[in-house]
Fold:
Amino acid sequence: MTRSELVDRLHSRVPTLTHDDAKSVVDVILEAITRSVVADSRVEIRGFGSFSLSYRQPRVGRNPKSGEAVQVPGKHVPYFKAGKEMREGVDVR
Structure:
């Protein structure tokens, strides 16, 4: 599902919202999640999942073209863990 599909679905479920208002709601929610994760805060949405930062240790990687060893620095990456309801829903498929 894309952002625009999410906006369309929200607009169809809540007819009192205009399309622009639905877009604003989606944008505000996604921006709040992004800002919280960037600030190293954990975001948990019950039944859906949680977003957090994870640290990847520095390591030695390989250049796929030449096979040469390359130092890959440590970095922080966003991490998503699915909630119980989502895991169970996906497992049924």
